[in-house]
Amino acid sequence: MLKIVHLDSSSLPKHIPIPRPNIEHQWIAYEATDPQQTLERLQGADVAVTNKVVIDKTLMQQLPKLKLIAVTATGTNNVDLDAAQELGIIVKNVAGYSSVCVPEHVIGMIFALKHSLMGWYRDQLTDRWVDNKQFCYFDYPLTDVRNSVIGIFGKGNLGSEVGRLATAVGMQVLYAEHKDAATCRDGYTPFNDVLAQADFVSLHCPLTPTTQNLINAETLALMKKGAFLINTGRGPLVDENALVAALKSGHLGGAAIDVMIKEPPEKGNVVMEAAKVLPNLLVTPHIAWAADSAVEILVGKVRDNIEQFAASLK
């Protein structure tokens, strides 16, 4: 019988639980697990199920029975992959589950920014419209999405689908070549040229040492004045202080952020404080991936990963 321990079940919606694998097993679930609790909770476990709980080499070395880490996400940066390979522990993630909802979220952000929806909405929390002498007013910019240029950084599953949807609403799509690349591949545009031409920059590249702080004071300065930044990729792709400075100076026309460097963000975080006062800064709490359809695919793949692992033991 496999002992399976789910360390952070509250990282998934309660109404769509992971279906139990069709094998003999014991399933223990915790809503959340603090670092000092992880070792105790994984004692005797064959399988650890985790989204964001860190499993490092020191921890793995103390868990001789652990043979599978089933990650309920695509990113595996919370697991020491080298140590897992060294110790013979299989790590299985889930990919491709959010290929519909994340691109749709990006397109929604594009329209929200171009139509200043956050500004108009905030006004309705006061009497701005009620007190107006005309039937409407013109406090915020409202411009067309059609014919805008979107620069997409990352041409994988999500970036390609964002490009397809953007084309469908009349946008011109540029895929950015890697920064400082010696040559530019077919179908791509040089990195700096994309920054200079794009009305929107949308980030879909993986987080690596070369992409950390990809969007910083230097690269923001290369973006055309009034352009918009969208990040539904990874928080550390963007220097948060530089982003807020570019918004406050007026160089950026706006930004929409679904991911942060630290999640949840700490009280007083520069982006969260700016979002309280800037009508052109839209923040969503890392939920672009979480449509019911996507979660159903994700939890099904987690179960499949566990069942496939169990089958390999026979």
Largest sheet: 6 strands, parallel
Report the oligomer: single chain
Radius of gyration: 22 Å
Let me know the number of strands: 11
Structural class: alpha/beta
End-to-end separation: 12 Å
Describe the structure.
The chain is an alpha/beta fold and 314 residues long. Helix 4 crosses helix 6. It is globular, with a radius of gyration of 22 Å.
Quick take:
Helix content is 32%, strand content 15%. It is an alpha/beta fold and 314 residues long.
Lay out the secondary structure.
Blueprint lengths: L1 E5 L18 E5 L5 H7 L5 E4 L6 H5 L6 E4 L9 H7 L2 E3 L8 H14 L2 H7 L25 E5 L3 H12 L3 E4 L15 H7 L2 E4 L13 H6 L4 E5 L8 H10 L2 E6 L12 H6 L5 E3 L8 H21 L2
Parallel strand pairs: 1-2, 1-3, 3-4, 4-5, 6-7, 6-8, 8-9, 9-10, 10-11
Helix pairs in contact: 4-6
What labels would you give this structure?
314 residues; alpha/beta; 6-stranded parallel sheet; 5-stranded parallel sheet
